[in-house]
């Protein structure tokens, strides 16, 4: 279970709080949507929950313990721009195996073409690279996945297939999912609960 | 304004020693845009949509091979002519924030784009200020670096960079990616405005919903081929669409059923015939024999023997 207690964050003393006294609980297997316009701090919240940023107030817990700072993080973040989330000088194979050897059924489910393995990130399209990042994020230690506009780069058919695969995996492994998106229709299809904190 | 006929792009790379391998990214693409028109190109991620824009700007890597005919303002687009035109007459609104220089302030980059496209030194500051205001960017954003922008703001900066000059043909590569619906509507509205002043806009996107808000026509692109050219009005759920792939894309939208009628990746490695025959109820022996050409039906074009 992922839990955020009384989280508050701002970029610098003189700037406004992006969120304050923000509480959140995601049960294993639960799928939660966070909608809202751009520039409100949705992605910042995702970075706080996954340990990339330290909140000025409050803290993040996984299964009752503070988020660990060493080893594989149990909360994995998938970014809006996968190009910026990988090392441009690593080949796809190395990127995908960074945490552990991915099981073959996962590669099939996400339609990872074996011919990509020897290529560099700039030789894949945004959608293809996002699937590679998804494989990397789905290591065996992962308990919760934060999808920050994960499929906003993808065509509608690829979007459906990725979400179907991911929902299956999440159900089997009881992963918590947080879906951040502008696409309200998508959130309504995927999520049991919607947190309207960042909306107007 | 722009006329593309039977464009194909392939890449060669060395595999082992001096052995060369050719990878074909675009097989056959036909496209025509008139002044004042927005033509949307929608399709599979990884189908080569962005390559099309790069080909039109002449910024493909040196191992790319381009064939087919390209005409801009009724004159053939040669490599030399492209070097003159890009940035001044043909401008790109790029797809990702990685196209911004991470070490330069945003305002400086927009000003540089304006200068390169022929705006005089004196005019540049007011032109840049207007471009910022138009895309709802605060004045202080001009002093920020790209990493300080949110995804949506970065996109607006990129749009400002391309429209600050005087180009007649705008290539918008995924201009709405990551924008919320209000900001996306705004960005698309600006494309419409630009088209209404007589510019031609090529709107490359995977987001059919966004494309339909402003486009006049839609070219659907899959597995290296253009499979259908339809009027925007044809996307209305009343069975006006011609090609099975177009229908599958439409029905996969969250608001239209979220259905998966065919796998998302159709590879072009199968033997000759139509690539979609396994997912089409109209298929017969002809479909297995040869790849259909583009045919004119109901005021649109479709790559199908039977539509």
Tell me briefly what this model is.
The complex is a heterodimer of chains A (200) and B (307). Chain A has 200 residues and is α/β, with parallel strands linked by helices.
Care to describe what's here?
The complex is a heterodimer of chains A (200) and B (307). Chain A has 200 residues and is α/β, with parallel strands linked by helices. Chain A has helices at 42-49, 92-96, 104-109, 126-137, 156-173, 184-190, and strands at 2-9, 19-26, 31-34, 57-62, 65-66, 75-78, 144-148, 176-180, 193-194. A five-stranded parallel sheet of chain A has the order 6-7-8-3-9, with helices on both faces. Chain B has 307 residues and is of the alpha/beta class. Chain B has a single domain (2-89, 167-303), classed as 3-Layer(aba) Sandwich (Rossmann fold), CATH 3.40.50. In chain B, helix 3 crosses helix 4 (124-134). The mean pLDDT of chain B is 85. The chains are: A alpha/beta (200), B alpha/beta (307).
Features:
heterodimer, A: 200 residues, alpha/beta, Rossmann fold, 5-stranded parallel beta sheet, 4-stranded antiparallel beta sheet, 22% strand, B: 307 residues, 8-stranded mixed beta sheet, globular
**Would you report the number of β strands of chain B?**
12
The amount of beta strand of chain B, in percent, is 25-35%
- Name of the CATH first level of chain A: Alpha Beta
The total of beta strands of chain A comes to 9
Q: Order of strands across the widest beta sheet of chain B?
A: 6-7-8-3-9-10-12-11
Radius of gyration of chain A: 17 Å
The radius of gyration over CA of chain B amounts to 20 Å
Net shape of chain A: globular
Task: Chart the SSEs and their pairings.
The complex is a heterodimer of chains A (200) and B (307).
Chain A: E1 2-9, E2 19-26, E3 31-34, H1 42-49, E4 57-62, E5 65-66, E6 75-78, H2 92-96, H3 104-109, H4 126-137, E7 144-148, H5 156-173, E8 176-180, H6 184-190, E9 193-194
Parallel strand pairs in A: 3-8, 3-9, 6-7, 7-8
Antiparallel strand pairs in A: 1-2, 1-4, 4-5
Chain B: E1 2-14, E2 20-33, E3 38-43, H1 49-57, E4 64-72, E5 75-76, H2 79-85, E6 90-93, H3 106-116, H4 124-134, H5 151-163, E7 169-173, H6 181-196, E8 200-205, H7 208-214, E9 217-222, E10 225-231, H8 244-251, H9 285-289, E11 294-297, E12 300-303
Parallel strand pairs in B: 3-8, 3-9, 6-7, 7-8
Antiparallel strand pairs in B: 1-2, 1-4, 4-5, 9-10, 10-12, 11-12
Helix pairs in contact in B: 3-4, 3-5, 4-5, 6-7
